[in-house]
Specification:
55% of the residues lie in helices and 7% in strands. The chain is built from 29 helices and seven strands. It has a five-stranded mixed sheet, sandwiched between helices. A two-stranded antiparallel ribbon has the order 1-2.
């Protein structure tokens, strides 16, 4: 079944492609992938100006393929309907390339194309999937499904196809379908607008011109700021308005006035009342979502989005979040008290001003508490976490657990930016894929970290090679000096790699059963974070970037002792974002004043005043750059419940590298995509449902039964 990506009347498409120049330009993007691994994107040939022509080619090709199925006079069968529409289309080549230009290589020209074509593409694919001939064929098969002789996977695919079509408007009348397509088209436009406004604010930077502005900052971070300034051609030191720059500054700068300025610039992305303000955009998005939910027969957008999740209902998701929330808030109160005590003592001793802890103080004083309680300084840890060695560590983890081997072959295939490295992936002596690693932050690259696949595995289309990509935003250090990263960054590295391992493990037949529920997606990534601090990884790869000495056991002991340190902050920062997301979308009416809604909701749930959400609504890309995580940010916690329970299973063996358990985990939960119900797959692996108490113990919170 075509994905909901793309767009417009076929007559316009045919007219546009009638010119040889348009077809020639499109070929730089639409050409079949050649070379190793079943073909790879020809990044070196791509002409970004050709995307409009490529989109037109996609629409013409997909429309023709779709028509070939729907216009058939033959009675519908599983093969001539379901199987036929599981076959690859030109969209499967073009859209991954486009995704990289939007997320990794954005500029004004790309944003202009995005603004023009996202609505068109949305309308096109919605018109296809809402074609009554399509639903008629699927329904005819569904109504007699028990007589078709289908195996379990075919039955699941047919059932899910039918249910998805019904949930997304297949049974609406013509006027209602027209309204739905209008809503989806408008949403695509607003998503594009939101994403580009936030990116524009993240491309802003603060320039420091005096060494007095750098007091307290680690030398390697100062060097990174200097390098960033040189790249921009400005004097002084430059702080880019993204988390990878802002967080280290807030942790280390002794200049409280500058911490406040940096914090406010970061916290107010998209909320400055200027051309990049996103509040009105968000209001339109949530209104359109509420309108769509009502049209489709759902009470709220949350109910619509959660229909096909493990949690199933907003109430179940909220119940899990509210089970954790009170303990997290209580822990924040304790953390703030510890920080305030240090601030008060410093003021009394004349070593600092008398202050009350504010959000721009939290990370700074948390580091003081860490030092006081555990004699641990983050800057003491960072020199042992070289980025290149942590990359080697995650590859070693994949080999020890699942038998994957990653061999660098950078230069053997085209890449979309000189910074991108590539690695051939083998398993059991057989090549299974190619891994792209895009490490550094840069202008035009969206913030955060993510994994994507350019090509997935499925037997139906003969796709036996996976093309997977991890994308991070680490701050590049000085030339010739190994880049070191924080423990948090190392955890992020392993997290995104966990996503890649999930897809590299696939052994599925039907691409339509390759997408897992939103609240399962983060499970494979989160569980792999646990191996970062295992003794083997630390002893083998945590080496001082200058001396090569292994990380001292005493330092490892301090890290382990502080394992649950600041978990109040980390949990509240995340959970507040997830709860606000759910409350925003689990209501039949849409708020019009987004800032007011955020403030009032946080007050209602008792948000500590000393901190803010990890993602304030005006910059919450997860929610407003697409529908993907809307009413779904809770999924990290839902997944973490399975993650904590799974890690407990590994610990119970007495060997967290236990090969038998790793093989069973990979076979039951990683390799199967969505070919079976994910809750049933988990029970098959663990013998029961996940235990939420494992999550509470992992975060160091009280367990009710204890």
């Amino acid at each position: 079944m075509p994905s909901k990506h793309v767009l417009a009347p076929l007559s316009a498409v045919a007219l546009a492609l009638s010119t040889p120049l348009a077809a020639q330009k499109a070929e730089t993007i639409t050409a079949p992938w050649t070379g190793p691994y079943g073909g790879v994107p020809a990044w070196d040939k791509v002409d970004p100006a050709a995307f409009p022509a490529a989109f037109e080619a996609v629409m013409a090709s997909v429309k023709a393929q779709f028509e070939g199925v729907l216009a058939s006079k033959a009675a519908p069968t599983f093969d001539n309907t379901i199987t036929a529409l599981q076959k690859e289309t030109l969209s499967d080549r073009v859209m991954p390339i486009w995704g990289v230009y939007v997320s990794n290589l954005s500029n004004d020209d790309i944003r202009r194309i995005q603004g023009e074509w996202s609505p068109k593409l949305s309308a096109f694919f919605n018109e296809l999937t809402l074609d009554p001939r399509y639903f008629a064929r699927v329904k005819a098969l569904y109504d007699k499904r028990d007589t078709l002789g289908l195996d379990a996977k075919q039955m699941r695919l047919l059932t899910r196809t039918y249910e998805d079509l019904v949930a997304n408007g297949a049974m609406l009348d013509a006027a209602q379908k027209k309204e739905l397509i209008g809503i989806e088209t408008a949403l695509a436009q607003e998503f594009s607008s939101f994403q580009n406004k936030v990116l524009a604010d993240e491309e802003k930077f603060i320039t420091f011109t005096s060494e007095a502005d750098l007091v307290g900052l680690p030398a390697d971070f100062v060097a990174t700021m200097k390098s960033a300034a040189q790249d921009k051609g400005v004097d002084g030191w430059l702080l880019i308005n993204t988390r990878s720059y802002v967080q280290p500054f807030l942790e280390s700068s002794t200049r409280r006035d500058l911490r406040k300025s940096v914090f406010e610039a970061f916290a107010n992305r998209g909320d400055n009342g200027d051309a990049n303000d996103t509040n009105a955009t968000i209001a339109r998005i949530v209104a359109l979502r509420a309108q769509r939910a009502k049209l489709l027969g759902f009470k709220t957008h949350a109910e619509y989005r959660m229909r096909d999740t493990m949690a199933q209902t907003p109430d179940k998701a909220m119940a899990l979040m509210m089970k954790v929330w009170p303990a997290a808030v209580a822990r924040v109160r304790e953390e703030v008290a510890d920080m305030q005590a240090i601030a008060d003592a410093e003021a009394k001793a004349g070593k600092g001003p008398k202050i009350t802890i504010e959000p721009w103080d939290y990370r700074f004083y948390a580091e003081k508490v860490r030092k006081a309680k555990y004699d641990l300084d983050q800057n003491e840890v960072k020199p042992y976490f070289q980025l290149d060695k942590m990359v080697s560590a995650m590859f070693d983890m994949a080999n020890r657990l699942y038998g994957f081997t990653f061999t660098e072959n950078s230069g053997a295939v085209p890449v979309f930016h000189p910074d991108v490295r590539t690695f051939e992936v083998t398993r059991g002596g057989k090549v299974v894929g190619l891994f792209y690693l895009d490490t550094w932050a840069r202008t035009g690259k969206r913030s955060g970290a993510w994994m994507t696949t350019y090509k997935g595995q499925d037997h139906l289309n003969g796709n036996e090679y996976v093309l997977a990509s991890n994308n991070n935003n680490f701050a590049k250090g000085s030339a010739g000096v190994p880049t070191t990263i924080s423990l948090d960054d190392a955890t992020t590295l392993f997290h995104e790699f966990g996503h890649a391992l999930h897809y590299l493990s696939y052994d599925i037949t039907w691409p339509g059963l390759g997408t897992t529920p939103r609240d399962f997606v983060e499970y494979p990534s989160q569980v792999h974070e646990n191996w970062v601090l295992t003794p083997y990884i630390l002893e083998t790869y945590a080496r001082h970037f200058q001396t090569g000495a292994p990380i001292p056991k005493a330092l490892v002991d301090k890290i382990k002792a502080s394992d649950t340190f600041n978990q109040g902050f980390a949990t509240v920062e995340y959970l507040s974002s997830a709860i606000v997301d759910m409350k925003l979308h689990n209501r039949p009416d849409a708020p019009t004043d987004i800032d007011a809604f955020e403030r009032e909701t946080l007050a209602e749930i008792g948000m500590p005043k000393e901190m803010i959400m990890r993602h304030r609504l005006p910059q919450f890309n997860h929610l407003f750059s697409s529908d993907a995580y809307s009413a779904g940010y809770y999924s990290y916690l839902w997944s973490e419940t399975m993650d904590a329970d799974t890690w407990a299973a590994f610990e119970e063996t007495g060997n967290v590298w236990d090969p038998a358990l790793a093989a069973r985990f990979n076979k039951a939960l990683l390799s199967t995509g969505n070919e079976t119900d994910r809750a049933e797959a988990y029970r098959a692996f663990r013998g029961r449902d996940p235990d939420v108490n494992a999550l509470l113990r992992k975060r160091g919170f009280p367990v009710p039964a204890q």
